[in-house]
Amino acid sequence: MPLFPTRVLLATDGSPNATLAARSAIELCERTGSELHVVHVGEYLPTYFAYTEEEPAELRRNAQRLLEGQVESIRAAGGVVAGTHLRLGRAAEQIIDLSEDLGVGVIVVGSRGLGALRRAVLGSVSEDVVRYAHCPVFVVRTEEGTRPT
Question: What is the fold, at CATH topology level, of the domain defined by 7-140?
Answer without folding.
Answer: Rossmann fold (3.40.50)
